Amino acid sequence: MKIDLFRGDFVQARTDLLVVGMFEGQKRLQGTAAAVNGALQGALQALIKEQEFKGGRGHTLILHPMGRIPASKVCLIGLGKKKEFTLDRHRRIFSRMVSTARSVNAAQVLCTLFDKTTHHASNEVLSRSATEGILLGGYIFRKYKKKKDQKEVPRKILLFADKAPSATGIRTATIAAEATNFARDLVNEPGNVITPIVLAAEARKLARRGGLTCRIMAEKEIARRGMGAFLGVAQGSTNAPRFIHLTYRPRRGFGGKSIAVVGKGITFDSGGLSLKPAEAMRTMKMDKAGACSVLGVMHALPRLKPNVTVHGIIAAAENMPGGKAQRPDDIVRAMNGKTIEVLNTDAEGRLTLADALTYAVKLKPQRIIDLATLTGACVVALGEYTAGVMGNDKALIDAFLQAADETGERMWPLPFDDNMKQHLKSKVADLKNIGNRWGGAITAGMFLEEFVDKTPWVHVDIAGPAFNEQHWGYNPGGATGVGVRTLLHYITSL
User: How far apart are the C-alpha atoms of 256 and 104, rounded to whole Å?
Assistant: First the structure.
């Protein structure tokens, strides 16, 4: 889809679908909706009365102008209650608009920004929100469908506001949304397509296209660097592991700012010898979601050009129960020298991240943020739509959560508790890879803290929102690309 600005007479525009909005409980149409109703000689207001349309959030009403205006169809979309309307609701309305446009086969759509509804947000912010809603809501993964049975998304969407929409907002949001959809594509690919080696090849492609530095390590170098925790997870699979390090460096004056973003990259997770039940294994292609979000971030940086050095780090492996698989009770040594007693081979992500985080620390970034589909316990605690955030630096946590709030990605802080450290103590090694049954998301985060030294660090458990088979918000089902937009917003604000 191409998104552009519209300058001209909104009512007299020649388009397939003209979209205006109405708040719930609003007695009379206002703004562009009132102007369209006037041109239609009151037909829109009459249809509202006839259909008892209340303006409920996301509800739509389609009117055929019968030649009274150039538009082929008019869509009135419900905005919900005005006092509850937020920037993220604005984003969701545009996602709903795309699905409506698809349902009526509209190739071109003209829509107004709802600019008097989000606490006087700037046109740049509103343009960004609208663009993200359009591109994220219009995403479809149908690569493997022989029959293209879904209607096409619109080819062109034009945005209109009383004051001109922002080209900068549209451009920035397009980059972020395309990066998110790139991550979604990778997560949605099955395990027989995306193996660690293929994921590394995708990283190389990104590097070539964007002028990034790319280093890929195979098993011998991984072993030489002492990444025993990572290799322990990988050894049960016939698909060899790869360690991926991408680097973006700004071309203009370097201000010394730096960050490492680390993603869990389990391309398929069977649970290893601590085998998952069949039903729990069914969506485990998504266990690479953290890694794919990191690749999404690296996809966008060369176009956004922030004045920050960014390291993208992924320890990619497949967790399988092969003849050489890691056993419960095995002890492995991580890159920082700490030994780990493996009590559950299905708690594998923290083992791969232990070495990835240690590697990141050695690069001496000013801050580290990792994303991982780490624990079912986080989903129990926060639900399917919210990521858990924890770490060792309150200022960094607060700044990251602020970025998440501004992008509409739902995240919530979880506390570390020193009383729980005892559950990670092992009688035969420095650490166990699992605690007891309580607070599993927190003990997993506290395990990772053992590998970040004193570097300011945030851990984001995305097990809930990374993948959901049902449509929600501007996520059409499947992978969501969670974390990409928050990370980009945070990085570009440094």
Answer: 51
Residue 148 binned pLDDT confidence (cut-offs 50, 70, 90): low
Tokens of 182: 């790139």
Catalytic residue list: 276, 350
For residue 140, give both structure tokens: 């479809």
What's the pTM? 0.96
Q: How do beta strands 467-468 and 108-112 pair?
A: unpaired
Domain boundaries, the chain: 2-162, 178-493
Place of tokens 């479809």: 140
Tokens of 210: 């964007």
Nearest CA-CA partner of 350 in 424, 248, 407, 280:
424
Cα of 134 vs its chain's centroid, Å? 15
Under the banding of pLDDT at 50, 70 and 90, the label for residue 119 is low
Tell me the two tokens of residue 12.
Answer: 């007299």
Question: How confident is residue 147, by pLDDT bands cut at 50, 70 and 90?
Answer: confident
Residues 225-263 have pLDDT tens digits of 999 999 999 999 999 999 999 999 998 756 689 999 999
Q: Nearest CA to 159 among 266, 381, 305, 1?
A: 1
Alpha carbon distance 92, 385 (integer Å): 15
> What is the C-alpha to C-alpha distance for residues 371 and 464, in angstroms, rounded to an integer?
12
The residues, ordered by sequence, that sit 6+ positions from 173 with a Cβ below 8 Å of its Cβ are 127, 128, 129, 130, 131, 132, 135
- CA quadruple 76, 82, 84, 85: dihedral sign: positive
Joined tokens for residue 72: 């082929």
E-only strand ranges, 102-241: 108-112, 156-160, 213-217
**Residue 176: which H helix or E strand, with range?**
helix 167-188
The three-class DSSP label of residue 233 is: helix
Cα distances (Å, whole numbers) of residue 80 to 44, 61, 205, 251, 310: 18, 14, 44, 45, 40
DSSP labels, 14-63: --SEEEEEE-TT-SS--HHHHHHHHHTTTHHHHHHHHHT----TT-EEEE
Measured in degrees and rounded to the nearest 5, phi and psi for residue 107 equal -80, -30
- Is 178-493 CATH 3.40.50.300? no
Residue 483 to residue 81: CA distance in whole angstroms? 28
Query: What is the spatial distance between Cα 313 and Cα 81, in angstroms, rounded to a whole number?
Result: 43
CA distance 111 to 98: 11
- Report the topology of domain 2-162: Leucine Aminopeptidase, subunit E; domain 1 (3.40.220)
